């Protein structure tokens, strides 16, 4: 049974602030770091219980608020294969986090254990990590109290990126099995990626040095180590690496800044020269946005949609070259935020599915393809190879040297790509591989299709929960009547498209619009916003 006395005395040290409702949303719990202490303690307990429920498999806990401002923090749980926590447990997490007192919490725990028939005699293992936020260490110690309250085994993975933590969870749980994912350490991760990368670019001319904007976050630390492992294979130049400067994190830099403002971070202005390319990570290094300066010193952004198009085309080419194209089919997963230009371009070539925002939706949809390429426009994404495809790759006998080369490339890609979750650095190496194989500059990559001008607007409303959507968030079903008005507005704009959805991470409603030119996209966005005030 539960060690009630121990839980009680530890829980009393982590009281829930009154008048605050916590919610496990698309990205876990996320709010001001200063009010998350009780949530972290309870998440430690929940992680241990999830581990017991899954027969002692290791569960991951990541403390980060990604691209949000420095005072924010957050926490999310990672399931045994390195994927996001199963949705049903998001509700349990929310219930436990909101029990007002220690007594109420213990009662909720007890009910939870009985309803889910969790066998408390099973072992429990939890691995946890944090990003560079100043609130991180205290929040980690609250998680440790939760783990100790359950007498579970904790492993501190220190300060590292979100994708490394996801990798670790999968590596730990597959250790010694035939599905072994890699050595269960950050070093093991770096080695796995860089060994695959070096094989993929062997014999190719070294690409020009690559600027990486690390958003002054944990990506800086991982990028530095990655650069050492890569040596001359590609020279990385990490910038915005001030992880200890107060207020610097995600401030006018990083992938979210670039995507949202469609601008180069001012700190890179003098560094990115004509013809050069660079990229930005977000605060926990799970997102990636590329860009380049053209010969007239114009900035061009290459977002998640452009990455998906580049990578998917490359994998299709390789399956053809290997003679596997009728056995291994590539499919794409996007969200409503994917630029209409990309959706048109991709759906003329490959199956494309649209799903609601949030990595777990994309991930699950991508699992249904032989090779599923999923990217959010904001730069979060990866490529999944199904177990059957991996099997085919390992048993396939190529009939020509050219087929054999292509097959080896695909196999190396399965090692280079972090298949647990979107991974800014792994995706960056993937992009570099494709550019190197195709001898593409940023400009050539960009030319596959033209982005439609678009505009994203935030609207603060009294209650965002009254906004409900259908059709992968592309249509509003509530409040009634608004969708018809949106449709009517959209019809007046050439190439117009617009949708409204409640944010899963902020107390706002988002409006997206695109049209044939900048002015029209802006106008459509603001007129649709006007409908929902
Ligand atoms: C979270 C999601 C991200 C999504 C974003 C949308 C994960 C790990 N992260 O950051 O994929 O794009 O939320 O935010 O799922 P919004 O709901 O506020 O628009
Ligand atoms: Zn992130």
TrEMBL record:
GO terms for biological process: carbohydrate metabolic process; cell wall organization; UDP-N-acetylglucosamine biosynthetic process. The keyword Isomerase applies. Residues 207-288, 303-440 form the Phosphoacetylglucosamine mutase AMG1 domain. Gene3D superfamilies: Alpha-D-Glucose-1,6-Bisphosphate, subunit A, domain 3, Alpha-D-phosphohexomutase, C-terminal domain. Binds 1 Mg(2+) ion per subunit. One of its GO terms (molecular function) is phosphoacetylglucosamine mutase activity. Mg(2+) binds at residues 66, 282, 284, 286. Pathway: Nucleotide-sugar biosynthesis; UDP-N-acetyl-alpha-D-glucosamine biosynthesis; N-acetyl-alpha-D-glucosamine 1-phosphate from alpha-D-glucosamine 6-phosphate (route I): step 2/2. It catalyses: N-acetyl-alpha-D-glucosamine 1-phosphate = N-acetyl-D-glucosamine 6-phosphate. It comes from the Eukaryota. CDD domains: PGM3 (cd03086). Substrate binds at residues 376-378, 501-505, 510. Residues 479-529 form the Alpha-D-phosphohexomutase C-terminal domain. Its cofactor is Mg(2+). Residues 58-88, 104-176 form the Alpha-D-phosphohexomutase alpha/beta/alpha domain. Transmembrane segments: none annotated. Keywords: Carbohydrate metabolism, Cell wall biogenesis/degradation, Isomerase, Magnesium, Metal-binding, Phosphoprotein. Pfam families: AMG1_II (PF21405), AMG1_III (PF21404), PGM_PMM_I (PF02878), PGM_PMM_IV (PF00408). The active site is at residue 66. Its EC number is 5.4.2.3. It is an enzyme of class 5 (isomerase). Catalyzes the conversion of GlcNAc-6-P into GlcNAc-1-P during the synthesis of uridine diphosphate/UDP-GlcNAc, which is a biosynthetic precursor of chitin and also supplies the amino sugars for N-linked oligosaccharides of glycoproteins. Belongs to the phosphohexose mutase family. This is Phosphoacetylglucosamine mutase. It comes from Fibroporia radiculosa.
């Amino acid at each position: 049974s539960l060690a009630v006395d121990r839980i009680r005395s530890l829980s009393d040290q982590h009281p829930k602030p009154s008048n605050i409702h916590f919610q496990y949303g698309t990205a876990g719990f996320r709010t001001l770091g200063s009010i998350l202490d009780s949530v972290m303690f309870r998440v430690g307990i929940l992680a241990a219980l999830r581990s017991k429920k899954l027969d002692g498999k290791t569960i991951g806990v990541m403390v980060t608020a990604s691209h949000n401002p420095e005072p924010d923090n957050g926490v999310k749980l990672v399931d045994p294969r390195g994927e996001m926590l199963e949705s049903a447990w998001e509700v349990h997490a929310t219930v436990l986090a909101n029990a007002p007192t220690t007594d109420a919490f213990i009662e909720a725990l007890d009910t939870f254990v009985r309803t889910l028939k969790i066998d408390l005699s099973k072992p429990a293992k939890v691995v946890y990590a944090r990003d560079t936020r100043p609130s991180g260490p205290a929040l980690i110690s609250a998680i440790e109290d939760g783990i100790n309250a359950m007498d579970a085994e904790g492993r501190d993975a220190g300060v590292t990126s979100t994708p490394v933590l996801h990798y670790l969870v999968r590596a730990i749980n597959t250790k010694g099995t035939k599905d072994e994912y890699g050595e269960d350490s950050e070093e093991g991760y770096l080695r796995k990626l860089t060994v695959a990368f070096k094989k993929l670019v062997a014999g190719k001319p070294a690409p020009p040095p690559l600027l990486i904007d690390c958003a002054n976050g944990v990506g800086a630390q991982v990028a530095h180590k990655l650069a050492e492992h890569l040596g001359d294979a590609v020279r990385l130049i990490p910038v915005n690496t001030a992880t200890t400067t107060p207020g610097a994190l995600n401030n006018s830099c990083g992938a979210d800044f670039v995507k949202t403002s469609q601008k180069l971070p001012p700190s890179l202005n003098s560094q990115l020269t004509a013809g050069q390319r660079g990229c930005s990570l977000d605060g926990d290094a799970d997102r990636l946005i590329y860009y380049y300066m053209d010969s007239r010193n114009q900035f061009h952004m290459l977002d998640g949609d452009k990455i998906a198009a580049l990578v998917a085309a490359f994998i299709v080419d390789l399956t053809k070259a290997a003679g596997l194209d009728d056995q291994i089919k590539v499919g794409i997963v996007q969200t409503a935020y994917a630029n209409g230009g990309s959706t048109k371009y991709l759906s003329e070539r490959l199956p494309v599915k649209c799903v609601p925002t949030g990595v777990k939706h994309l991930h699950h949809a991508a699992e249904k393809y032989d090779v599923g390429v999923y990217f959010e426009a904001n730069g979060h994404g990866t490529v999944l190879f199904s177990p059957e495809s991996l099997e085919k790759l390992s048993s396939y006998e190529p009939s020509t040297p050219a087929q054999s080369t292509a097959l080896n490339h695909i196999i190396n890609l399965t090692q280079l790509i972090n298949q647990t979750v979107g991974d800014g650095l792994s995706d960056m190496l993937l992009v570099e591989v494709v550019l190197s194989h195709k001898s593409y500059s940023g400009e050539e990559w960009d030319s596959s299709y033209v982005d439609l001008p678009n505009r994203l607007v935030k609207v603060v409303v009294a209650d965002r929960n009254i906004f409900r959507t259908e059709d992968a968030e592309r249509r509003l079903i509530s409040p009634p009547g608004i969708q018809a008005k949106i449709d009517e507005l959209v019809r007046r704009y050439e190439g117009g498209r617009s949708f409204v959805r409640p944010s899963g991470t902020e107390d706002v409603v988002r409006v997206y619009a695109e049209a044939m030119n900048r002015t029209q996209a802006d106008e459509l966005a603001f007129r649709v916003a006007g409908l929902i005030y």
